[in-house]
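S1.2 Input.
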Amino acid sequence: MKEFKISVRNTTDGKQVTLEVEPQMTIQSILDVVVDYWQFKNRVVLALSEGKENKLLNPSSTLEENKIVEGTELLIMPDSEGGF
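S1.3 Output.
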């Protein structure tokens, strides 16, 4: 599969990281990387910004299933609901 780049923005401080990913990667694998990168202690979730709303992404789904492509920005934020 062809690799592409996405960015993940931390909604608590605005910092951003760019990742090289593949379409079959899961949201959980992206979460694992950014949790390690930012050393989060609390539970977090990944979301896709859709206008004024943020769509929470299921950790077991893939980037491809969520139509995440080159240049997509994901948001990482505290998990206010306790998970899926």
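S1.4 Remarks. DSSP finds one helix and five strands in the chain.
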